[in-house]
Amino acid sequence: MERGDLIRKLFRGYYSSASIEAPNDIGRREFGFIFIGQEGMRRHMSFKSVEDLRSFMVRETPLHAYFSSAYYDFPDVEDMDGKVWRGADLVFDIDADHIPTPCKSEHDSWRCIDCGYSSMGMAPEECPKCSSRRIEVDSWLCDFCLDKARDEVFRLVEEFLVSEFGFSIGSMLIVFSGHRGYHVHVRDKVAVELSLEARREITDYIRGVGLSLELHGFPSKSVKGVIPPSLSDPGWRGRLIRALYGFISSASLSDLTSMFNERIAKLIYDNKDEILCSLESSPPRWPSISGLPTYVWSRIASRVVSEVAVHIDERVTSDIKRLMRLPSSLHGKTGLIAKSMSISALNSFQPLFDASAFGFDDCKVHVSHMPRICIGGSFYGPYRNVDVKLPKTIAVYLICRGSANLLSW
Amino acid sequence: MYLSREDLAKYPFCREAKEYISSLGFTIDEVFNPDFSIILDRVFERIEGAVRIGRVETRLIDLDLEILSFNIAPIILSIIGDNALSMRYAVAEAKRVYEELRVDDDYKLQLISVNSFNWRVRFLRPGAFQIFFADFLQFSPAFEAFNWKLVNRSVIGGWVYVSRGELARLISERVKNEIFSKSSQPMPSITLPSNVMDRIEGLRKIFSSYRRVVESEEVKGPMIESAMPPCIRSLMNGLLKGESMPHMARFTLATFLLNAGRSVDDVVKLFTASADYDEKMTRYQVEHIAGLRGSRTKYSTPKCSTLKTFGLCFPDDFCVLKKVKHPMTYYKLKVKSSGGGVGKGGSN
User: Fold this and answer.
1) Residues A40 and A74 in one domain
2) B221: DSSP letter
3) Range of the structural domain that residue A131 is part of
4) Lowest mean pLDDT among A174-188, A360-374, B239-253
5) Do B159 and A208 make contact, defined as CB atoms within 8 angstroms?
6) How far is A93 from chain B (nearest CA, A)?
7) How many Cβ atoms from other residues are within 10 Å of residue B16's Cβ?
8) Mean pLDDT (whole number) for B178-194
9) What is the ipTM of this complex?
10) What CATH number labels B5-210?
11) Which residues of chain B have a CB within 8 Å of the CB of A317?
């Protein structure tokens, strides 16, 4: 059977027995679909009920299914202005592709479309050889990467959305994307009414963009004698000083020499205890160690910002008309279910098992290429042009991403 | 705690002031009744003050006069129908309100925020408040200063700390927006008494002489490549190399080029280098941005802070030195300093 037909058959099998989850207010949402063997997206569609949506999914069997974060008066009008926008869920996308993980150098690779240069690991923004930005990424499902993404979801939800923005857990839906990340949908009235500008500010807040260390109590060349943040401070003040504290307490001398000259690095390293002690004191004070300039604290803080910010995709959150993957639909690149859950279920969520649509009986496939990956607690690969028996969920994943052909089901 | 009638005269935009006007049973027709010419006098005085010195004075002699004239001024402005004038007036009134509130009692700021705007504001201690983040974000993005960015604020449980001065600034920005939007509403055509028409004419004349020539964003003349800001240059290089670019990058580049005087055809041609070029689609989108399609809005280039959000900002020394906040400003300043002679209207 041809690959497209096979995927269609598999997906149809899933949709004919799956229960489709409709987003709230389904009649005011725009839907969009990508189909096997067709270019582009069929969008500006709307459904009155979950039954309509479900019979469409069974009949048409899309490869990818999306719905708008926005609520419209006329979701099926093609002209975006004609839809009449009435608000949108506040949405976040956390993708392992944007989080540096050491295992990427073992399973992911990238290739420059222009000069052909390729390498293992996380894709750079631009090719180091020809500085082209046309980069092709070959990324794989990986337990470790997905765990990192999950950690970021917890920090986003618990630290930022609940403690700092005051949203209730009950207003949030967590969705495993079906591939390498998670989506968070906030459907609180306050969130739905936020303007584009407000969402940009929230995006910057969560990513730590435009952060002024001075305004959070860090000394600079022009501002001295500011009150230092305390380790128990809420918001960015506390986050920054805790990150600084954590960095200093665990820094090796070579960590420090990578940032400062040897004299300063040694001063910090040798006075660790005194530094940590003055940050812990109440009220806190900036350590005064003779010979140590005050800018070092800001220098360290600006380095650790990216570790304590959350790597959300800024384009998703600051877009008020975004199409998001439909929970309970299959991801066309993996054959995994975009699974929705509450935050309390996220802790025990196991992407491969809980999002599996095809089970774990063995089937036989010819694998053209697959690095060694760890998913669902087991290692698979590396394979190159071999016939192997694999659990169906893994086999469908390889078929969907074009790395395998089915031999027998 | 409540607002006195004197407070209503200082803050005639608040809900209590509007209720007070309704209780007087005053109608629009009466504005032009010669018996009430004293009100119209004060209306024109307010607007003239704004035009001449950018200020409106608070006068607490005839309180009713203050309350009425403030609320009638936008009607007169909407009859005049000049947005620049309306904005100048709105800014001047907002400044007045800010200066009053800044030194007024804390409870008044709270009453106004809560009762008139439905903001969630809590009094914390003298001179310090907390405002709900969604209310804070209604107007804070309009302020450029770093301390107005949410990331530089203390945010706890949805609440943002603000000082009295800052809350006064938010309130006055809200007032500015309200005045401007009321002043730019189209008026049903009414026949005005000739003396009122004369006064409006007079006001128009004063304004045109005081009006600084407001530079349009658009710059005419050939584009000077060396004056392009670093963000645009980087996008341009990417495009010419045939990289595929995210939507925001294309949008920024297209709006910049169109506003810098390039034609739709030029811009479309430029995008042929793009990785996934589709002439029909590109033309449609560029025409949309140029205001030739859809809502007919001509789009502006995103400002620097927006580009920063999208990771498209790569400031150079000139950006830092001149504290540039908008790519177009960079371009105009560079063109001017290079003596390119490509100011308004091009070379003669």
Assistant:
1) yes
2) S
3) 104-138
4) B239-253
5) no
6) 15
7) 20
8) 83
9) 0.92
10) 1.20.930
11) none
